[in-house]
Amino acid sequence: MLKGNFVARSIIQTILWIALSQWLIACAGGDRFTNSDGQAINKSLVDLLQWRAGRQQPAPIELPRSDDWKGLNSQSTQYAVWIGHATYLLNNGDLTIITDPIFSRRASPVSWAGPERMVDPAIALTSLPPIDVVLVSHNHYDHLDIPSLLALQENHPTALFLVPKGDLALLKSAGIERVEEYDWWQSRRVERTVFTFTPAHHWSARGPLDRNRSLWGGWYMAAPERTLYHAGDTGYSSDFSEIRQRLGAPDFAFIPIGAYAPRWFMAAAHVDPDEALQIAEDVGAGRAFAMHWGTFILTDEPIAEPQLRLREALKDAGRAEDFFITPILGGINPLVD
Asked: Which of 309, 7, 92 is nearest to 324 (CA)?
């Protein structure tokens, strides 16, 4: 009986909090960003409660990992190492770059609640090589983690932080000094690499009052040696064909494959493995690497399912298995032809 009362109170509290949040958002007004089709992703309270009420959280598992990254040295170039989630350590022959860095235990504004890591980062933050550029795709807590950004600044004081339009004030207020914000299709040259912020089909928020007040997207990195593309977090759209038309086909793409179930709720914001493969085709990637899976439990699909479904999609499409891989955590993936 006590358990039933507790559950009932929790449901009521959740309903009231969401209702209050939506009312506050409506009162706040102001300019907000939309996707390139002019639409914003705004799931209703009824949709959210329907998903949460029937949810069965998948069992956690721990993916295998490698210590091969320890073989990197100051002479190492043109490589990618999956650290976890959407965090990649990249070297494109010109710069050393880290994407959507999250090294915290939880993807959350607090340390005692929220999605918890199933596996530690493949490389400890203090073991990273010198970082030149830090890229952030959007402000969700599993992609923009302030403690990780502050630690990166402390350990790599000359690193430049590139973030979406609307997130500059957030990083500045946290104490990040070398930070710049970008709208879609705006570019910035660093050394011999041109960084361009590209569209994605997603949304942003860190609290009840700032939904879609900052932009979201991916990063295209064009250097003489290699062109790389990090898609950020996204649903499927025509954006990816336009990226190819405007910027050219990247040599290597880093594309999300997880956090997609149930489809009726997640499809607008998160691609499934079949759509991830289609993104790789749309942008014309020479090869692709998976991300955004196996690190946090965010949605309903079994943890290992994205990898299995990606392999099936490749087979059905007549593509070689090494066209789009799910790299091992901590492994060194050469960015060579």
From this structure: 309
Long-range contacts of 56-60 (CB under 8 A, 24+ apart): 56/300, 57/297, 57/300, 58/297, 58/300, 58/301, 58/302, 58/303, 59/302, 59/303, 60/118, 60/297, 60/303
**Residues facing 180 on adjacent strands:** 162
Q: What is the pLDDT of residues 119-162, one digit of tens each?
A: 999 999 999 999 999 999 999 999 999 999 999 999 999 999 99
What DSSP string runs through 116-173?
Answer: B-SS--SS-GGGPPPPSEEE----STTT--HHHHHHHHHH-TTPEEEEETT-HHHHHH
Given CA atoms 195, 198, 200, 206 in this order, what sign does their dihedral have?
positive
CA–CA dist 140, 216 (Å, integer):
9
Cα–Cα distance measured from residue 327 to residue 303, given in angstroms and rounded to the nearest whole number: 15
Report the C-alpha gap between 318 and 311 in whole angstroms. 11
Condensed to tens digits (0 to 9), the pLDDT of residues 69-113 reads 999 999 999 999 999 999 999 999 999 999 999 999 999 999 999
Domain boundaries, the chain: 1-29+43-56, 68-334
User: Which residues fall within 8 angstroms of residue 101, CB to CB, at 6 or more apart?
Assistant: 83, 87, 125, 134, 145, 148, 149, 152
Amino acid at position 185, single letter: W
Q: Contact 295/85 with Cβ under 8 angstroms?
A: yes
Would you mind telling me the total number of residues written for the chain in this entry?
337
**Residue 185, CB-side half-sphere exposure with 13 Å CA sphere:** 9
**Domain 68-334 in CATH: superfamily?**
Ribonuclease Z/Hydroxyacylglutathione hydrolase-like (3.60.15.10)
DSSP 54: T
Structure tokens at 62: 């721990």
